Structures are given as structure tokens and as C-alpha cells.
Amino acid sequence: MARLADYFVLVAFGPHPRGSGEGQGQILQRFPEKDWEDNPFPQGIELFCQPSGWQLCPERSPPTFFVAVLTDINSERHYCACLTFWEPAEPTQEAASAEDAADGEEELEDGGRMRLSPSAPAPASQLFAPKTLVLVSRLDHTEVFRNSLGLIYTVHVEGLDVSLESVIGNLLTCTIPLAGGSQLDSVEEGARTISLGAGDRQVIQTPLTDSLPVSCCSVALLFRQLGITNVLCLFCAALTEHKILFLSRSYQRLADACRGLLALLFPLRYSFTYVPILPAQLLEVLSTPTPFVIGVHAAFQAETQELLDVIIADLDGGTVTVPECVHIPPLPEPLQSQTHSVLSTVLDPELELADLAFPPPTVPASSLKMQDKELRAVFLRLFAQLLQGYRWCLHIVRIHPEPVIRFHKAAFLGQRGLVEDDFLMKVLEGMAFAGFVSERGVPYRATDLFDELVAHEVARMRADESHPQRVLRHVKELAEQLYKNENPYPAVAMHKVQRPAEASHLRRAPRPFPRLDEGTVQWIVDQAMAKMQGAPPAVRAERRSTVPSGPPMTAILERSSGLHANSARRLEVVRNCISYVFEGKMLEAKKLLPAVLRALKGRAARRCLTQELHLHVQQNRAVLDHQQFDFVVRMMNCCLQDCTSADEHGIAAALLPLVTAFCRKLSPGVTQFAYSCVQEHVVWSTPQFWEAMFYGDVQTHVRALYLEPPEDRPPTQQVGEALAQEEPPSALDVASEQRRLWPTLSRAKQQELVQKEESTVFSQAIHYASRMSYLLLPLDASKSRLLRERAGLGDPESASNSLVTNSMAGSVAESYDTESGFEDAETSDVAGAVVRFINRFVDKVCTESGVTSDHLKGLHVMVPDIVQMHIETLEAVHRESRRLPPIQKPKLLRPRLLPGEECVLDGLRVYLLPDGREEGAGGSAGGPALLPAEGAVFLTTYRVIFTGMPTDPLVGEQVVVRAFPVAALTKEKRISVQTHVDQFLQDGLQLRACTFQLLRMAFDEEVGSEGAELFRKQLHRLRYPPDIKGTFAFASGATHTPGRPGRAAKDKGPSLSAPRTLSRNLMKNAKRTIGRQHITRKKYSPPSWEHRGQPPAEDQEDEIAVSEEAEPSTLTPSAGLKPADRLTLSSLVERACCRDYQRLGLGTLGSSLSRAKSEPFRVSPVNRMYAICRSYPGLLIVPQSVQDNALQRVSRCYRQNRFPVVCWRSGRSKAVLLRSGGLHGKGVVGLFKAQNAPSPGQSQADSSSLEQEKYLQAVVSAMPRYADASGRNTLSGFSSAHLGSHAPRARVTTLSNPMAASASRWTAPRGKWGSIRVSGRSGGPGVGVDVGSRLAGRDVLGPPQPNGAPPDSGFLRPQRAALYIIGDKAQLKGVRPDPLQQWELVPIEVFEARQVKASFKKLLKACVPGCPAAEPGPASYLRSLEDSEWLTQIHKLLQVSVLVVELLDSGSSVLVSLEDGWDITTQVVSLVQLLSDPFYRTLEGFRLLVEKEWLSFGHRFSHRGAHMLAGQSSGVVPIFLQFLDCVHQVHLQFPMEFEFSQFYLKFLSYHHASRRFRTFLLDSDYERIELGLLYEEKGERRGQQACRSVWEHVDRLSKKTPVFYNYMYAPEDAEVLRPYSNVSNLKVWDFYTEETLAEGPPYDWELARGPPEPPEEERPDSSAPQSRRRVVWPCYDSRPRAQPDAISRLLEELQRLETELGRPPERWKDTWDRVKAAQRLEGRPDGRGTPGSLLASTVPHHRRSLGVYLQEGPAGSTLSLSLDSDQSGGSSASSSRQAARRSTSALYSQFQTAESENRSYEGTLYKKGAFMKPWKARWFVLDKTKHQLRYYDHRVDTECKGVIDLAEVEAVAPGAPTMGAPKTVGEKAFFDVKTTRRVYNFCAQDAASAQQWVDRIQGCLSDA
Questions:
Q1: In angstroms, what CA-CA distances link 582 with 77, 144, 632, 1394?
Q2: Are strands 273-275 and 310-314 parallel, antiparallel or unpaired?
Q3: Cβ distance 153 to 81 under 8 Å?
Q4: Are 1134 and 1284 in contact (CB under 8 A)?
Q5: Band of pLDDT at residue 1759, cut at 50, 70 and 90
Q6: What whole-number distance in Å separates Cα of residue 1439 and Cα of residue 1455?
Q7: Pairing mode, strands 1453-1457 and 1363-1368
Q8: Taking a C-beta distance cutoff of 8 angstroms, is the pair 1350, 1335 a contact?
Q9: Which of 78, 162, 170, 1563 has its CA 20 to 30 A from that of 992?
């Protein structure tokens, strides 16, 4: 029996002692006044009576009731039922309150009641003070408390004739039965009827089972208030230990919600802070760091806003707010969705019927109480499904004196298949589950509904999953049981309790609540106590039984294990392999081993392996020979490598006994066990694993202790027990039986059993100390790093958060400190670290298992001895194991070396491991598993080479080669290789090269750490030599020319000393000149505007040369040159750039020295001694009018002194391309930034800046077309609409403003656009884009051209600036333009070198990833490619280049002046020349371009390639590679315009980084001259010498093979290319992604086996006879070599036949040229091409570009149509019509092989171009059929250049000669054709032919 109420308390309002505005609660009386012994009086009750604070109230409120919960220090809950009513305040209270209010100025109370305002003190009659009756109980009977307190209040208010003292005395003495009424004798006992002596009667029903919570309606109310999703969210939050706060305006609702949430958690008990109603004074409790469930009045909501990690549930608003930083893991699927659907069915039964056409009559909804139980039943089922089979993972560690039970968490998760599930993991680690295990793990106890459910109903629940009706039926059954538990006797629930009358609280009470007589109450209590002592104690006999375990657990969701499905065949392979090993059939075993290792990825195969190995262990020992031992160890390692640290599947646990059983004899008395070879797994260093293993073993031994058969058992009994012996009892069954017998045993027997168990635990602890030392001490004790690197050991959380389940981690904390296992292993030896790890383990398990302190001390003494003994044993084993003969390893394959290449380190045995590219590893793409491969790495003076063979014997004898030049190494990283197919390898190295190669290697044991370190050092030394002489290009050359000094001595003549003399003079002069920085200057006044455009008069002094004469030795003209300087000049003239300048007509050295004034530009030798600019070439092209001595001053305005010089001139428009470094702060930019336009008298301007302006003026003047600079509009001029706010015409072309399209009509662009298919667009009113908006980095493109082409080539036509300066936007920021200048600034945003470097790093990682991507498939590759932004940079380069090409083509000159002038400037000017000049698209021209722009103009190859030790920190910045990638993109779009092949570009890309040739070494000509490299001796015999120049090498190879030649080369004359540049049009270069593992990179031609490997389509064939089929493996074979293109094959066949016939083989190029010439003649019988020709020169333009090279059919024509219409789309309406007609005619002409029938009349006419354009001779064709006049460039031209539609012609009339017309023709030869849009001016050869043309055209018009 238990007391219904422990205390009755009367609490009233009292003034606050500190005089604040609030009052405080005062306990007036409490009964009994003495504390009960078993239950002291709880403190702080007065706070909980008025949670919002004690205040006076201006009016009477009705009485309120709620139940608060207090938790004492023993975690027991006390229920405080509070009934509050209001009485008139006493005068003292009022006065106090008024004073307080006057001090505190507080008006409003939280909760809506008025506080006193000091300005208006209320009359005394209006103030009411609260008074509270409190009942304190340990039982939760809310309704009984409400009735009892209500009765006391009724007796007081209604003045009933009953003594309050007796009512309260009866209440305090009332006792009720404990839970479990059904087990008592009578209904009266189970449902106790009580009366308090006021004519009342109440029935108290006690629940049947104490452990099931009582919820009344609280769960149903919670769902009604918050909804399913929110309650599920709170449920998961409470289980995963988050903080939960309820808000409501009702205290009772708060209490109910908290009670409901806890009821849902059953069978787990909430063990953290639980305060359903929190008083306002204690709000700071909310910032506690521990989890809680707390309710707070909604009035304090504002104060909860700052809580960052609290989940807030607003009961009144129905919301749950989860902060961002809180992650609540959801229930595992499918339980989440199943639970959700069942809950919705329970809450809304009509949901299932809502869609029925004929719904049945509505089912009456369950009552609220019943619905409450149904909801709880759903959660009870959920827990049964979650925890099904939990008893199979319990470890009984001790049975007596008290059970000690542990839960094997990892095994539970593993067997349920929920290892990855966040929710269950957190639940099992939580305190609630720890309490669950200690409470419910006990094997012999009273059982309840949950035990039955989890043991017997699981199968039913699984079967019902897909039948909602059956699930609902089960829920209702469970709900019935829960309801019956709370209301066992519904029939006797008759209450009779008086209540006060309605509105009684408003009546004037007769008197305040009286002071009660303590004596009377105490007397009643004492009387009852005396009776109780007389009666016998009512002890309820608990019905205890063995708790059923239920069926073994199954996975919650049967997941197929994917790739390694559990096939019997796999298990068979594993079994066969093991039996072969133990039968000694090693060859058979070796064949099966790879398959076994693959199979061991599956869990079943690993289990099978452990079972099979167990069969071969006798007497705990199995001695093997060396080969068997290796096989077994390898398989064990493979098993363990996929084990996590927790070992969920018990594989490590099963192997633990085996690793101490299998061994081999090394020598007499020395045995090596398998554990010394399987130590490198994270599982061995995880404390949780060892604890679980220990407890499992202890359980086995304790069980055995009680299962020993007694000797004196009679034989007759044994027959009957045969059945029992068939299935021996589990440890839990044994423990249950022992607990049942325990009370019956004698004290001595009990003591004996306790001691036996304690000894068992102690002996196991010793055993485990040994086992742990076996697996933690490495074979070589010097390798302490193993311990530090193990995962779990340095992790304090994983060490302390172990499998503690029933202790609250308090008792453990003292013994098991929470430091990490081996964190201090660095400072001490291995032994010390292992001893500490084992001691912590021993401390923890022994304390939990109840080992005596004496035994524990003994263990601490033993552990160091055990470890020391083991170390001594290991020393002998280690010594002997090193003497073992090495296992037969494959023979090393030696690589082939280049001439001059020497081995630095001979083959170090390594394994080449797979990286992120899955092709070689036989991944999802299929193919053989070429990697991992076993072989050796060789380090030579030139390369790092791996050669070896795949470890998978099924791949066959394929040789794997992977190599890259040492110079290309960009990153070297040590990697720790966890495991490998073959053995455990410790040291690994990952080498990444900028030639897109990656070597992931693991060194073999025999190499050792010293060998690996030596390899790294040598590699580093070769990669970063201290100076250039250490590179391969120099070192190899030296070794191959031993006779060079002697030969040089014999040679007479000046050439010998040239380089050396040159260097000497050069150094001297350079130092002298650079020293003279200060030169006096005259002021400069700019010329007046009229004179600006004209060159200076002959007699006028050059205005730039205003300084005093500079030093003669540096700046004198050629007449005064010394002999050595002349020699320098003659050498300079031979340089590539000079040859190119002559080709372009930019002048020769002779003309420059004689100053022929007729030429606009001249060659200046001003820099011949590299005195002005060291990074420029010796000879430079400058304007004729500028004197040499002025250039030095101009150069100071530019970075690195790189002043503007001409590098190319357009043959057609005569515009020039200039390059320079970026501007310094002063200079033109300084001028533009000046406040006012420069006036003639501006004295403060820096003279060098003015000279620079003059220099630019001279450049402009040198261009004939711009000599007369009349007022004109410029690029930015026609963007005025968009530059509205800038009133003056902006002279700086701002590149961010889109420009309205000019009114000029669309004119067909010269040259051609890139060949990318695009969808045709309908023409509409076009919007062009101004020059730079495409360059400003924003890609603002007009709609017509979505692929990067400018929208309209006419947009540059009207009137342009003479010179555009393309500069960096940052550098030109804030420039104020000056409208009088003749040049225009185009600021663009460019990327810097560091951005290229970062982008390249990412590109390397994307194309050659170091490890497999997290998500396989192309998406991750494409994402990382996009992140690298490499293609974006290519896009910008092409975009800028196309812009410059357009400007040059339109006749404006361009100066590219970016960064220092040697990176992006070089890229842009090279691309511009390549696109503009077909010469540079030949092999010879491209070489010249690279030599001129990259080598002579000083691109810093050594610096950007980090060639020397000094450049190591700067890293590789592949500017040149980026340029080659741009060329590759253009090559793809125009495959017929380039003489060289794609392979040529790859070859240069590879060798610019390889340092094999001297070409791409050093940073400038100046440095090359210093080393004597620039001018090699001429007459030298180079027979034996290796090529030093890459160009020589290319020439040599080109003679042997067509590998660098592009068969489709068929250029068009004077063709300007305009490639599409949008990222969508760019392709990733296959140079970055392809590799050939058969022989390594194909770019070192001498090393290729058999015939060479040409690129793509043009590779010659090397395979065996064609009839034999071959398998071509991606990434191993070269596909183009295996299947070469037709032409290569024919050329090869020809060569073979010539050899067979004994004729000297002809060079392939001669053969090819002959065939081509013959084909051309054959294809043009009448001078016009035929489409069927083999050669592509006759294919129409658009098809050539599109790459539909030799293929007839509608595809080409359709594409050409779409392309043409796309080009025309977007100009004005009329032009789109014209373009459409043009494209139609092009389509039409494609099918007319002979067009003669369409040509009514044809001949040559001169035609005047559009505005400002010259007269040109064209071939005109009058076509009656199509009613049009077409014109072509020449007679045989197949491509129409323009069309005049005769439908638009208005008149044909005689014309007059205009400016620029042919002089020799008479006036009557001119005639005009006027159309609706413009007038065309024509000129015939004479008057007669003009008349004939006029007649013919008029005839056509009249016919129409």
C-alpha cells in the first residue's frame, strides 16, 4: 500500500523581501509538519504554485488547477497538485504592494492581470491576493487530486458542516494499493474507494502493470495540437537527446504535452531534465547544456528567442521550430513511412474511405481516451520493430550477486542492416537506452506488454506490413490492453464529490481561508499510523519469470548487397581455394586467389572464410609452411580491410582466435604467428571492439561455469534430458535460472559462486591483456608510427564513449580517463603506449565487471611484464623473418632509354595502384584490371618510368608502362597505402605531372623506407636543378659530343667567337646603359590638331628625340658599329623574326639603317645589346619617324620596359598589330586621368609620358589610311544610346555597355566562322554588342549568335579609331577619355597568371583524379571540370583574339598591352596572327610564330615551368599549354585550314614541359645568348649528336612519317578564321585524358615499339595481318594505331611494296604531293571543281567548315542552311531576307554540278565597294533562271561573294568615274545599278562591254 498524499500545504501571497514589484509565495501551513522518513518535504514548492510570479489582482478570478512535477536528487518525481483561488488582500499586503509598485514602475503582468500603477492606487476593496492549496504526492492521479482539493475549497466556500482538519487528515492518511490490482484478491483492493469524510466517494483504479505509463488523453491531445509530422519530429528529437521546449498559455496543457511525449517513449525512460511547468524565476535553466523536456508559459516566449539549440513546440499555434544548427535524424525507412500512414489512419479513420464511390455508413470515432491508447499502440509496435532481437546482443558479464549486462551495439546494428543509420546509432548511444538495457536486460523479472510484443509478435508484424487493415486490427488489440491497464474496472468508476456553486468565486466570501488546527490533523495522522503498524505489511509478491528472447534478429530491410550478391558459386570458390592451400596445391590456389579476393568484398564470403579456417585449427594451433602462411595471411588481410572500427559483422571477432592459432616455424624455437602480419587494421586499435570481444568471451565462460554436468547425476535422468541437450540453453536462460535459485542458496554457496565468477572475469582480463599486446605491438618495434597513425587511438571521444550501458559513466570516469589511447606515443616508446592502452581497457572492464581492487592492482603490475615478454619474443621473430628467402617475385622489366638518357636509380620494386581513372582498373567501363600492377619504378636523367605487369593473373602477360618527364612533376605526395591485393605496403608515393600523368605507387617491403626516401631526394634533385646546365637537354648533349672542344679549336673564322664575344659586349653595354637612368628633357608641347595626322616634315627635327645624345656605344646608327657589333647584327638578321618581318614587308635591316623615309616602319637595332629591354629581341619594328634615342625614354612608361613594337601587318588592310607590356601609372593613362585635356602649355606633364603619346601618334601616322584624321565617330560613338549620362563621346570603349546595332546593313564577313552546328534562328531586329562587352568577362552577346561569334561583322565598319589599345580593365580604371586622341582604349578584364595556375591544378585533378569520385559517373567529372574554369579562360582568350582579328580586318591597328607583356599578351597576339594569316597555319609558319612571339619576345618558359631550383616555390603556370589548347579548339572547328595535325600540338604540349630539347628553356634571347645557345656553330657535324632543338626533331620525323601532317589540309587564300568561342562550343582536349599503358606516352618517338603512333585519323598501322581479329582495350592499346585511317594505311602499304620490290622507298610527302596534284587535275577538267573530288579544296565553304569533309548527302546541305541562316539572323529585316535568299541559292547550287545552264551572261566588272571602300575587279554572272546578278572573286571561284536581286533593281543608268576608279578606262565604261536599298557603281573594260551589260540586265528586267 502507498500513501495517496504525502503533504498538504497552504501557500499565500507575501511581500518580496527586497521590495521589488512582485510579491512572493509564503507557506502558511503544511501537514504533517515533520518530514516523512522515506520522503522528505520538497523545497521550492512556492515557486511552482504561481509559475508566472506572485501578484495581486484587481478582480477576482475563478479558481485554477494544474499539476506541476518536481524531481528530487534521487530522480524521483513528486506531483504537486495546485488549486489557486483569490481572496481580498490584507491591508499590509496592499501597502507593501503599493510601495513596491511605486518603486518599480511596472504596469503589466505576464498573463494579462493588471499590476498596480503607482499613479492610480486602487481602493482597498478591489485588490485580491492569490492563495494556493497544494497536495504533494509520489503518485500520479490527477483527477483524484483535482477532486480532493476541490472538495476542501468547496467546504470552505460553501461553509459545509464539515471540519476542514478532518478532511485534510483523512486525505493524508488515505492509502491505496500499489500497481497490479488484478493480482490482488478482491476488486475492493484493486479499485480502492476512498472518502474524505464530507459525504464524498471516489474510486481510485491503480494500473495493472507498474511499468506501463498512464497517459489518460495526453497523447491524443498532443497529436491534436501539433499534428503527425511535428509529433514524430519531437519523438525523434527526444530519443536522440535534443532540447525540447513546449509553449502554451495553459499550464495543464503544458503538463499534459510533456506527459504525452514521455508516454510515447515507452519502453525507454526519459532520464534528463523534465520540468513540465517551469517558473519564471528559473528561466535560466533553459541555457543548460544537457538535454531537457521543459514547458514554459507562452507569456515568456520572447525570452526563449535567443536559444540557439532548442526545439520549440508551440502547442497553441501547432508549430514546431527546429533551429538550423540542430539536425534531427529521422526514423529509418521503411518504418518512418509505415508509422506515418498508420498514425494518419488512426487519427482520421475516414481517410481510407474518402475516395469510395459508395462509402459505408460512418464508423463511430473512438473516444479520446481510446484514440490515445491507439496512438500509443502504434509507437509500441514501432519500438518492437526497431528493437526486435535485442536480447540476442546482450552479454551477461556477471550473474551474482547482481546481474551485470552489456549490449553489443555494433553486432546489433550489423545484423539489423542499419550500420549507416544515424537515428538508431544515436538512440543506442543515448542514456535512455542505457537505462533500458540495465532495467530490461535482466533475465529473470516481471514481464509486461512490450516483452510479449518484441518476443512473440514480430513475425506477425512483418507479415502484416502490406495489409493496412490487419495492422489496424493489431493496433486496436494493443490499445485495448493499454486501456485495460489504466482502467481495470470501468464498472466501479462512480464518483460523488461536492462542487462549489456556479460563480461562487464572485460572491463575497464569508471569511478568508482559516488557519487550521495542527494538533487535530496531526492526531488523525498519528492514529492512522498506529493502525498501520499493527497491521501486517502488505508486500505484493511480484510475479517474476524468465524473459522470452524471441526469434533471432533479421535485417530491418532486406537490402541486396549489390555487386557481390551472395551467390553459392562465390562461396564455393572460397572453400576450394582454402582446401587447395591446405592440401599444398599452391598453383591451383594461386589461380583462384584473385577471384577469392574479389569475392571477399561480400560479407557471406568473409564469414565462410572464417568458418573454413576454423576447421583447420586443432588444439588451438595450426603450423603452416611459408607459402600456406602467406596465402592465409593475405586472405585474412583482405577480409579485414573492409572492416570498420566497430566490426559490425563480427569478422574481426571471428578472426581474432585464428590469428593466434596459425603460425609458421622460422627456425628452431622461433615461431611466427599470423597476428604479426595483420596488425595494420583500424579495428585493433578501437577500445569498443576489445570491450565487446571481452564481454562476449566472459559470457561464454560464465555460462560454462553453470553448465558443468554434476558427476553424481543418476544415468536415468540423462535420457530424459537428451532433448534439452540437443539445444543447449543460452547464457540468458542460464542466468535466469540462477537468479531464480539465488534466494534459496545458502550464504556460503552464494559466496562461492560470486568468487568463481570474479575469478573467471579476472582470468579473461589477463588473457585479453596478452591478446591486445599481440595485435598492438608491431613486429619491428622501431616502427612506432604505426601506433600514432591508427585511427581510433588519437580520438578521445571514441575511446571514452564505449559500450557503457548501465553505469551513468560516473563510476567509470575515475578509473578510465578519457584521454586518447596513444596520443603521447611520440614522446615515449611503443611499449609504454601499448601498456597505457591496455591498462585503460583493463581498468574499465574490471570496474564494470566487479573485479576486486586487489585483483585489479595485480593486473596493473602484470601488464608491463606481459608487454615486455612479448617484445622480447618479437625481436627474435623479426630477426629470423628478415632472413627468410624472398618470395619469388616477377622479373623486373627494363625500360628502353633515349640516347643520352641514363638511369639514376635502378628499378625499385613497387606496386602501381589504380587512381581515380577507372579505365585501367576494369571498373564499370569493363575491360581488364590492368591496375594494380606489380613492377619497378626507374628514375633516369629524363623520366620517371614504371614498368610491370598486372597483379591479376587473368589479365595475362600484358606489360604496363606509365612514364612522364621528371621536369613535368608538379606535385609529390606521400600516401599511406592501407592494403593491397598482395600484401600490406606501408610507404606510398603519389606523383602528379603537368603532362597529365599520375603515378600512385606503393613501395615493396624490400625497398624499405630508406630506399623510398632516397628515391624522393633524387627525384627532387633532378626536378629542380640549381641551374640550367643541370637539365637533361644540356647534360645529354654534353655526354654525346666528347670531341667538341677540339673541333672548335680547329675551326678558323669569326663564327667561333661570335656567341662568346656577343655575350661579353652585351653584358658590358647593358650594365652601362641601364646605369644611365637620368637624362635631361625639354618640355613637349603637342602639335596643333591640323598637323597631328601628318608625318613630320623632312627638315623638321624629330620631336621625340629631345634629349641630349645618349651614349654612342648603345644608340649610334650602323655606321659607327664595331666589328663585333656588326657580327651581332648579322646574327640577329638571321633570326626567325627578321625573316618574318621581311615576308610581311615591314622592312629589312638595310633599309632601316639608311632611314628610307618612304616606308612607314623600319627595323631598329636599338636593342641589339639588350640594353633597353632584356626580354625583347635584338631587332624591333618601330615607326620610321621615331629615332632610336627616343625609344629608351618611351620604354620607361611600360612594365619591364616592354614598349609597343609592331609584330605583324595585315597584307590586305595594312593595319598593324603591336604588343607591349602594361602601362605604368604614368603615361597615357596618366594623361587621360588629368583633370583637363592636355593643353599646349601644360608644363607639369612628365616628358616621358608625352614622348609616349608622341610615339603612339607616330604609330598612327605610319598608317597611310589614317593620315587625314577628320572628325569621326568611333566604336563607342555608336553606343551613345547606352552611354546617355556621358554627354561627350566616350573615347574609352567601355566594355560593359551593350551597343545598339548600327543602321548599316549586314555585309557578309570576310573569312569564315567556326564550324559548329547551331540551330537556325529567325531573323529579327538585331542588337549588336559593342567591342568589349564580349570581353568584359560578362559574355554579353547579342541574340543572333549564341556560340561566341560576333553578331554582325558590319558593326565595326562605319568609322573607326586608327589605333585600339587593349589594356587591363584594372589598369585603366577611372580613365577620363580625351576626344582629341586618335587612339582608343579598350579596357578588358583578363585573368592573371595565378588564376591560370589555380585553374590548371583543378584541371589536373579533374582529368587525372587521385582517387575514385564519391559519386561514380560523368557528373562528378563534369562538375570538377567546370570548377576548374579552364574552358572559361580558353573562351576569354578566343573571344579577345577574335575581337582583335575583326579590328585588324576592318583596317584599325591594335596594340595589345596586358600584364607584363609576356603571358596573356603573347597568347593573344599569337592567336590573332594564327587566325588572320594562313602562313602561320603551316608547319613552317607555326614554328616561326612560336619562335618569334614566344621565344624572341621573351615568354618566361623556365619561370613558368618552374625549371630551376629558384622557381620551385612559384609552381607551374602553363601559359603556353593554354595557347596550344586554343589552337586545338580552332583546329577542331577548321580542320582543313591547318597543315599540321592535332598530334603536332600534343607533341609540343608534351615537350614544352619535358626539358628534352633546349628550345623551350630559359626566359629570353638575352639569357640564351649568355649561354651561347642562340647561334649554334654552323659547320658543325651533328651526325652523332642528339637533337637539341624541337624543330630539328620535328623535321627529322616528318621525313620519316606523316604523323605531324594533316591530310585534310586544303587552305583557302587569305582566309581569316573566326572561331566560335562559347564554352558550349569548346571540347576538352583528349591530350588531357588519354593514355596508352602499353608503352607510355607516344611523344618520345624513338621509344615507340614498332611503327609510330600517329594521332586520330592519320596513324599508320602496325598490327598483324588484318584477317585476324584483335581486342583493343581502352587506355591500354592505341586505338588509332590498331585501326589507322585509310591514307596512312595506303602509304604504308606502298612503302612495304616498294621494299619488297627492292626499290628505294620514296618519301611519303613526295608520294602524297604527287597523288594530290594528279587528283586536282583529274577533278577539274573544265577549270571548276567537282564535289566528288577526293581533295577537299573543292567542297563548298560551309561544308568545309562543318567538318562534313568527304561525305555527300542532305546532311551537309541541311547544316549549311542552318548555319547560314544563323549568321544572317538578327540584322535588319531586309538583310535577313537577302541572307535567306543567299543561303537558298547556295543550297540550290549544291545540286547543280554544271552551272552553265544558269549563266545567261558572265564577265569581269569593276565594282565600287561600300562607303570608303576601293574598286575591285569581280567575276559577275547574270542568272536569268534565278533572276539575280551574282559575283565571285575570280572565274573558277565556286563560292558566291554577293548577290544583287533583280527584283529589287529600280534603274540601270550610265555612271560617272569616282575617286579610286581604274585610270585606263574611258568615262563611258561606267554604269550604275540602283536598287531599293543602295546604288551599285560598276565599271566595264570598255564602253561596248558596258553597253552590253546594261542591255542584258534591262532585258532580264523586262522579261520579268
A1: 66, 78, 10, 61
A2: unpaired
A3: no
A4: no
A5: very low
A6: 16
A7: parallel
A8: no
A9: 1563
Q: pLDDT tier at 216 (50, 70, 90 boundaries)?
A: confident
- pLDDT at residue 1798, rounded to an integer: 65
Q: Average pLDDT over the chain, rounded to whole?
A: 75
How many residues does the structure list for the chain? 1904
pLDDT bracket for residue 118 (50, 70, 90):
very low
| CA-angle at 1089, arms to 1087 and 1091, nearest 5° | 65
Q: Left (φ > 0), alpha (ψ -120 to 50) or beta: where does 1306 sit?
A: beta
**Non-local CB neighbours of 1398 within 8 Å, separated by 6+ positions:** none
Q: pLDDT per residue over 1709-1735, tens digit each? A: 888 888 888 887 776 555 444 433 444
Sheet with 1363-1368: strands ordered across: 1161-1164, 1180-1183, 1205-1209, 1216-1220, 1453-1457, 1363-1368, 1383-1388
Taking the C-alpha atoms of residue 1163 and residue 1147, their distance in angstroms, rounded to an integer, is 6
- Please, what sign has the CA dihedral across residues 1788, 1790, 1792, 1798? positive
> Measured between alpha carbons, how far is 170 from 521 in angstroms, rounded to an integer?
9
Q: C-alpha grid cell for residue 1832?
A: 565571285
**Which triple of cell numbers denotes residue 1443?**
575581337
Bridge partners of 1830? 1821, 1843
257's CB contacts (< 8 A; 6+ apart) are 218, 221, 222, 225, 246, 248, 276, 295, 313, 315
Amino acid at 1489: L
Asked if 1235 and 1429 touch (Cβ cutoff 8 Å), the reply is no
CA torsion, points 1245, 1248, 1250, 1252, in degrees to nearest 10? Answer: -150
Please say whether the beta carbons of 1739 and 1727 come within 8 A.
Answer: no
- Reported for 1645-1651, long-range contacts at CB under 8 A and 24+ positions apart, including other chains, are 1645/1597, 1645/1603, 1646/898, 1646/899, 1647/896, 1647/898, 1651/1681, 1651/1692
Q: Taking the CB of residue 825, how many other CB atoms lie within 10 A of it?
A: 24
Q: Which residue has the higher pLDDT, 395 or 1335?
A: 395
**Which candidate, 1172, 1221, 1209, places its Cα nearest to that of 1465?**
1221
Q: Report pLDDT digits (tens) over 559-610.
A: 444 444 457 888 888 999 989 888 888 888 888 888 888 888 888 888 888 8
Range name among 997-1006, 1427-1436, 1511-1520, 1648-1657 with the lowest pLDDT average:
1648-1657
Task: Copy the grid coordinates of residue 1225.
Answer: 601609372
Question: Where is average pLDDT lowest: 179-193, 1111-1125, 1164-1178, 1237-1251?
Answer: 1111-1125
pLDDT at 79: 93
Pairing between β-strand 1870-1875 and β-strand 1849-1854 as defined by DSSP bridges? antiparallel
Residues 656 and 696 sit within 8 Å (Cβ to Cβ): no
Which helix (H) or strand (E) is 1079 found in, with range? none
Q: How do strand 670-673 and strand 662-667 relate by DSSP bridges?
A: antiparallel
CA distance 999 to 944: 9
Per-residue pLDDT for 1793 more than 80?
A: no
**In this structure, which amino acid lies at residue 1698?**
E
The CA distance from 531 to 511, in Å, is 36
Query: Is 474 a residue whose pLDDT tops 60?
Result: yes
Q: What's the Cα-to-Cα distance from 25 to each of 9, 40, 168, 1310, 1572, rounded to whole Å? A: 12, 20, 21, 98, 103
335 vs 325: CA distance, rounded Å? 25
Q: What is the dihedral of CA 1825, 1831, 1837, 1839, to 10 degrees?
A: -70
Q: Which residues contact 994 (CB under 8 A, 6 or more apart)?
A: 968, 969, 970, 1400, 1404, 1516, 1518, 1521, 1553
**Short-list 1254, 930, 941, CA closest to 1092:** 1254
Q: What angle do CA 943, 945, 947 make, to 5 degrees?
A: 160
CA 1528 to chain centre: 29
Q: Minimum mean pLDDT among 1026-1040, 1041-1055, 1786-1800: which range?
A: 1041-1055
